[in-house]
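Notebook B, p. 112. Complex prediction, attempt 2.
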Amino acid sequence: EAAVTQSPRNKVTVTGGNVTLSCRQTNSHNYMYWYRQDTGHGLRLIHYSYGAGNLQIGDVPDGYKATRTTQEDFFLLLELASPSQTSLYFCASSDAGQNYEQYFGPGTRLTVL
Amino acid sequence: GEQVEQLPSILRVQEGSSASINCTYENSASNYFPWYKQEPGENPKLIIDIRSNMERKQTQGLIVLLDKKAKRFSLHITDTQPGDSAMYFCAAPPGGNYKPTFGKGTSLVVHP
């Protein structure tokens, strides 16, 4: 069973705050993804990566940076958080790309006051 | 970006009846069609998938149909149970350097 972990699981910050969400997968998967989930919008892709040092832009990248430091670790950075970024964030990984199953982490609930 | 339309957004059925969710996609290069189930408070998990070399796949009360000509695929849940109540997402990743895209989800409610 593929394992994807996220930290923190819950985070509250204020407008303008700096937030880093962490994701780690221990399955030697090359592809990792960051999504946000909001009611009525489903899962929306923020950034994704094919491997360490690689970064691809998703569908809703504004206000987000990401960095893939190793094959295992993928970080999402909000440098000036805004209330519109209050959401449930999921990280996912897949073995050989999007034509294969994605394994999701447990999610991080972020609240920006 | 590539669009995947998923309907209906909300589906209410009686226990024991069947439920159907439909998705349409744009990119004819798509050749992998997964379905994910997300229970309340949980993460999405793959429940069934189909590749473009098949038209039908069935496993444990789930049936997936694929019509490549119409760019349409569907999930059918037979003999629904309250435990089937959840959000369901389809996806039709175009592959290559294209971005993976999910449908907006269907909230299935199975009434006892």
